[in-house]
Specification:
Radius of gyration: 22 Å
Number of helices: 0
Helix content: under 10%
Largest sheet: 10 strands, antiparallel
Strand content: over 45%
Structural class: mainly beta
Shape: globular
């Protein structure tokens, strides 16, 4: 990996935009080259529910501050997606290193801002940055249901990317933080190369989610070596469960064929869902190695309850990848990603000669509930989340075509944000402009913060200029009606930016119930996250908590 660029610190500000995004600039496109063997044609899934089936029937903006607008599952509360057609748019356990103490930016004296300043607009309440040798990449951030414990999973090595560590000194890192951002413990798990394998060839991927009881679920995938979480070396694909104090309870090798890790989420009923990409052995009859996407549900004990294919097996690299999962009330799961070739399911079939976005939900027993696919679009749903009532919020990217959702058609968007009722009925969609790999954090009441890397930097910026329009990390908050409340940019110096080295990889509500949001990612240039200029050693991770602003 090339050494980090030397940059000079310049004056920068955190820019806040309080109206609809009207930013403009030159059009940036990425050309993707792939082998396209199929013809574009599309089927359809079950008919969309009628408007009367939708649960979002009125605005909840005037609800008493702090009251969940959507209620909880089974409660009569108001809908959480807005009205259709609205124009607003302790002991660390075994197998790892002892816990380390606090490091990085000190928390605020007020203990983390559990009562946000009503005058703040996307305020950075606290920031964590721990400079380490090598390259560090974010994997996941999650909070306990009471918001009193925060967890991050990251990967470190000489090379890597989001969720991934590789090369010499590769390791997985799990940390627990207090509500104020103080490190309570950190565990490191080195990746050990197999006998006869050069150390630089070992690599692995890591995902983390927190269950309703506060236990941690980890999805690990290690190649050309192994990792020891506390019960011996693990190679290949495993799900593991840890206590909130970081002690390993069990590890399960749930897969019998070669499968790659794509996503993980804990069920709201306990247990965990896993998304994988499976590759079967070479078939002389088909003259290919068949591939497919699949979703597993594992019990709290690690037992496999079911496995559901995301499309039928295909040749030539065609498949469906569910790269994001979200747990539904009642024990189901929502999934989003992209499909290549034919996406064939019991409730609908779609075809595309390029990677096209899709979104779906599964019942608790693994049967398909509903499916929405967009074969006219070239892109991917990159992140999804759900409200307490099961309303689905998703974000994605477009590399060609248009994204049509209900009454909204986003023909010029390079990325998008959209909302679906729990029944799959469309509510609204918004353009996110020229954005890369957006991720969402959805509150129980349905409000959303979307974050990513944006090339729509405002010009002129208050207090500074950016004549070459370098991309910057951002966070935007939308209310229930799809109205943009604020648009926060984290200004960086140096460039050009490299994808995967400047990225918000994971976002989540803080669990406190006050609208605070956690952002976890990595950066490789001097950047201002709201606490002054911060310069990384190489590629470093950052964790920050944002306040909700005055309209919570």
């Amino acid at each position: 990996m090339a050494p980090p660029l030397t940059v000079s610190t310049v004056s920068r500000v955190a820019c806040v935009v309080g109206e609809e995004d009207t930013l403009s600039g030159w059009r940036w496109r990425v050309v993707w080259l792939g082998l396209c063997l199929g013809a574009v044609a599309c089927g359809d899934s079950e008919p969309s529910p009628q408007p009367g089936d939708c649960e979002a029937t009125a605005s909840c903006e005037n609800a008493r501050e702090g009251t969940p607008d959507a209620g909880f599952p089974g409660s009569p509360g108001n809908g959480d997606a807005g009205s259709p057609g609205n124009d607003g748019g302790t002991s660390p356990g075994h197998g790892g290193t002892p816990p380390r103490g606090d490091a990085g930016t000190p928390p605020r004296p007020d203990g983390g801002g559990s009562t946000p300043n009503p005058a703040a607009v996307g305020e950075t309440i606290w920031l964590r940055h721990e400079a380490q040798p090598g390259e560090a990449f974010a994997s996941s951030v999650a909070a306990s249901s009471d918001g009193q414990a925060l967890y991050t999973a990251s990967a470190r090595g000489s090379t890597g990317g989001p969720h991934t560590a590789s090369g010499s000194d590769a390791r997985f890192v799990i940390s627990r933080f207090s509500v104020a951002g103080q490190v309570q413990w950190t565990r490191e798990f080195p990746l050990v190369a197999s006998v006869g394998t050069p150390p630089e060839d070992v690599w692995g991927r890591l995902f983390l989610s927190v269950g309703p009881t506060g236990d941690l679920y980890l999805l690990t995938e290690v190649h050309e070596g192994s990792v020891n979480l506390g019960s011996g070396p693990l190679s290949g694909l495993h799900v593991s469960r840890m206590t909130p104090s970081g002690e390993l309870q069990w590890s399960s090798s749930f897969s019998s064929i070669p499968e790659a890790a794509l996503a993980l989420v804990a069920s709201r009923e306990d247990g965990v869902f896993v998304s994988v990409r499976a590759t079967y052995p070479y078939s002389p009859e088909r003259q290919c190695s068949l591939m497919e996407g699949a979703i597993y549900r594992l019990a709290p004990s690690g037992e496999v309850l079911w496995r559901t294919r995301v499309g039928e097996p295909q040749c030539n690299g065609y498949r469906a990848d569910a790269v994001s999962l979200a747990a539904q009330p009642g024990g189901g799961v929502a999934l989003g990603g992209s499909f290549f070739g034919v996406l064939q399911t019991p409730i609908g079939t779609f075809s595309s000669s390029v990677g096209s976005p899709f979104l779906a939900t599964l019942y608790p027993d693994g049967r398909w509930s509903w499916l929405k696919a967009f074969p006219q679009s070239h892109g991917e749903v990159t992140s999804i989340g759900l409200s307490a009532k099961g309303t689905v919020v998703g974000a994605g990217v477009l590399r060609g075509g248009e994204f049509s959702w209900g009454n909204d058609s986003l023909g010029e968007a390079r990325s998008f944000l959209f909302v679906a009722e729990s029944t799959g009925a469309p509510r609204w969609a918004k353009s996110l402009g020229r954005t890369e790999q957006p991720v969402v954090a959805v509150e129980p009441a349905g409000r959303v913060v979307v974050a990513g890397l944006s090339r729509d930097f405002p010009t002129p910026a208050p207090g500074s200029t950016d004549p070459i329009q370098n991309p910057h990390l951002f966070a935007r908050r939308f209310n229930l009606e799809g109205k943009l409340l604020w648009n926060r940019f984290f200004i960086r110096s140096g460039g050009p930016g490299e994808l995967f080295k400047e990225q918000v990889v994971s976002a989540a509500p803080s669990g406190e119930g006050n609208g605070n949001t956690l952002l976890f990612g990595q950066f490789s240039h001097t950047e201002d996250f709201g606490k002054g200029p911060l310069t990384p050693v190489g590629t470093d991770t950052f964790l920050l908590k944002l306040g909700p602003g005055p309209e919570f």
